[in-house]
Structures are given as C-alpha cells and as structure tokens.
Amino acid sequence: MVLQRYTEHTKGLQVLARPLRVDLSSPAPSLSAAARCHDVTMVAFNDPDMARILAEAVLFGTGRPALLLPAAIPDAPRPFSRIAVAWDGSGSATRALHDAMPLIVQADEVVIISAPADKFVTEDDVAALSEYFMRHGVVPRYVKANIEVLGIGLALQHYAKLEGAGLLVMGAYGHSRLQQFILGGATRHVLDNLQLPVLMSQS
C-alpha cells in the first residue's frame, strides 16, 4: 500500500512494479541486478533493518537512485507537489537532482536547502542552481538549515518538513570496505531515522 500511494501520483511517468525472487539471507545481489535496469527503485521502510540493506545495495551497487519511503506517510492528495532539494554542490547532490527532475518539473513548489555549517555553499552556487531550475520552468525558494541541534541528516529532513515538502532529494555518500558500507553522516542519519520520502543518488 505504501508503494501504491506514491505510484498513483507520478503523472506522465511509467511505473513498473513486479515481484522479485531473492535470497533473504543475501538479498542485495538480486535487487542490485534488477535495479540497474530501472530508473528508480522504491524501498519501503516497513522493516527498517532490511530496508537499509536494500537501500545501500541500490545506492552503492547500481549507480541508480533509491526512493526511500517511511512506513508512516502523511495522507496527502499529491505527495510530490512540494519537493525539497538538499544542495551542497557535490557530484552526488547533482546526480540526485538530475535523477529527480521528472518529479521536480511536475511539482507546484520547490525549495533548495543548504547547510553551510556542514558544506559551504556560496550565494553564486545557489543562484546558479536556481537559474537551472528556472530554465525548466521551476521557480525555487531557498532556505538555510541550522544543524547545530539536530545534526545534518535530521536537520535536512526537519527543514524539508517545515517547508511542507513531501519529498527530499539528496546525494548519498559512502563506500564499501570489506563488504560493509561506510556511510557519510547525512546518509547514515537518514537511513537510521527516515522521517519523510527521500530520493537518494550516489555519483
């Protein structure tokens, strides 16, 4: 039901849902192989521990984005009508932005969120991104996130929710060491405490 709620609101996009046979003791290889041939993979966090394993497999094993969906989602008629984009100018943030553009251009409102205390972003950086959006018919707003109290991952989600966003777009950071993913702070915090739908990509 979680996935159905969101696939109903992807106007103009083809959504394919199909069962996937996996080995529950090692689900990552099967999911990774399937994800490589799709634009985005939705991961429902009904079982957070398993969902995190699957999300990491998609993000760091395929080069494709993952749309992370919390078990408890707000009852919104159009959940993607407001979208927040976490922006630090990195390759991963850029990849996530472009992966999310089919949804962004359909949104009624878009807000750019940066956290200068975590990754320094200049006014010129934000202006350049805003100009890019406007070339696609999107007029964004801009807010700065204060991460001193909540930390970067929770702060980005907090500010996205304050802005009424139904989706947060952000880059994922991490690498594999001896088959264990070593995650960046924001990525780790979001996967550990997912509070709203998040589209993540890794460059």
> What is the fold named in CATH at topology level?
Rossmann fold
Beta-strand residue percentage:
15-25%
What structural class do the secondary elements suggest?
Answer: alpha/beta
CATH class membership: Alpha Beta
Spatial order of the strands forming the largest sheet: 1-2-9-6-3-4-5
Q: Can you tell me about this structure?
A:
- The chain has 7 helices and 9 strands, in the order H-H-E-H-E-E-H-E-H-E-H-E-E-E-H-E.
- The model has no long low-confidence stretch (mean pLDDT 82).
- It has 203 residues and is an alpha/beta fold.
Chart the SSEs and their pairings.
Blueprint: H1 2-7, H2 28-35, E1 41-45, H3 48-61, E2 66-70, E3 82-86, H4 91-104, E4 109-114, H5 123-135, E5 141-144, H6 152-162, E6 167-171, E7 174-177, E8 180-183, H7 185-192, E9 198-201
Parallel strand pairs: 1-2, 3-4, 3-6, 4-5, 6-9
Antiparallel strand pairs: 2-9, 7-8
Helix pairs in contact: 2-3, 6-7
